[in-house]
Amino acid sequence: xxxxxxxxxxxxxxxxxxxxxxxxxxxxxxxxxxxxxxxxxxxxxxxxxxxxxxxxxxxxxxxxxxxxxxxxxxxxxxxxxxxxxxxxxxxxxxxxxxxxxxxxxxxxxxxxxxxxxxxxxxxxxxxxxxxxxxxxxxxxxxx
Length: 143
Known about the structure:
It contains five helices and five strands, in the order βαββααβαβα. By secondary structure, the protein is α/β, with parallel strands linked by helices. The longest helix is centred in the C-terminal third of the chain and has 24 residues, at about 120-140. The mean pLDDT is about 85.
């Protein structure tokens, strides 16, 4: 199953690497430099329907211009963003404090400390894919 993955990172090299690596696994990847480029950031509610999300997985750097990754995700979660409700969200950072890690755990957001191994990202994406497929199968059984 091909997933739609949104990647946000102001580091062009890392953004390109993630785009290339995740695309090579057959996923549809959109990689943006800044969350303010995300068309739904200022909507009052997430336009993504549970069975037709704007993305299946969101991955963002925490330290970016205009908005930190964790604040971006909080804003989307408040607006009912589908990937956030289902725990298919990750933060990448070289500067994760205990405070941030506790907050990410409370929000059910995965974190990857930079530098990370691509195999760890692939493993997490595979876990998300299993959750997504299970939720879609359950939704199909209970219309």
